Request: fold
Amino acid sequence: MDAQVAVIGVGSIGSMALWRLAAQGVDAIGFEQFAPGHDQAAAGGESRIFRSAYLEGPQYVPLLLRARELWRELERESGQQLLTLNGGLMIGSADSDSMRNVLVSAERFDLPHEVLDADEMGRRYPQHRMLPGEIGFLDEWAGVLRPEFAVLAAARCAQARGARLVTGNRVSAVEPFDGGVRVRAGDRTYTVEQAVLTAGPWTARFAPELAGHVTPRKLVMTWYPALDVPAYQPDRFPIFIRESGAVHIFGIPTLDGGSVKVAPHAPYGDLADGDDLDRNVAAGDLDAINRTVAELMPGLVPTPVRVASYMDAYTTDNHALVGQLPGTDNVWLLGAFSGHGFKMATAFGQVAAELVTEGKASLPIDHLDPTRFL
Reply:
């Protein structure tokens, strides 16, 4: 055997899985077609949101709370600052399902928060133009993650603990057999006891039984100049997610001293395969987000100074696939996080390590079981 465990894809989730496996003393080898910290898939774009009160439902809160602890552990181990908790605003109609989910999450788990009416939002956060009937929910345990640096930090910490990395070679096949798994990468075949599939936008390649429920999608991020830069620094401008009717956007404070990331909370189109990403963006594709910025964020120039394309894999119900790969007993799948996995990446790294070593996870993942589609 070349190792006890192979991790296929050392990106958002795979880097954290490799780190947690190495922390448990597991002999692990990671395979990455690019290199840890690359911007070719879901972890690019300078920043990602972290939040604890969850729009998608309270079942995620235990994962988020554990992720927060592990982000701090990774910071201590790597010596890098990766998570800035500057608060997070959820903005929307008071009677919407999303706002109700946030309130249920906060109350059930006693999360520190405030509910702000439109007048209070105007006083404290004039960067946002509120619409009739909208409120703000301030999640005090929300903030900004640095994805590229985080992935690289996890991979390096894993290596420091004894994990190995194979980079610049694409995995062409993962073949379970009785007692092991063969991994074909480049011109070599490796043999391991178990494999963890964390292939991001390429998930469907390694899970053909689920391919009809997994689609890679293009994501476009846009950065807008601030007219009053200090008003958009992290100490005055929390991360935000906004659902105003048909408009679903998110935003992150300036990290470069002048531009503010504001982008749709939705993909820009489906891809047949993760290799099909066209990073070019037509000017007309930005009309909708530019109009939204002009309407709802009066302190920003509604023409982006930076545009970047990335991708992620989405399932048909927008919840990830986490568990045993159907039809196998030694291959574990963590993929298709549907645009909201990075904040929980450290917790899912722990989940991967527990699945490998114990066959079950201590965190709640039943709602993510891949067999729900079969």
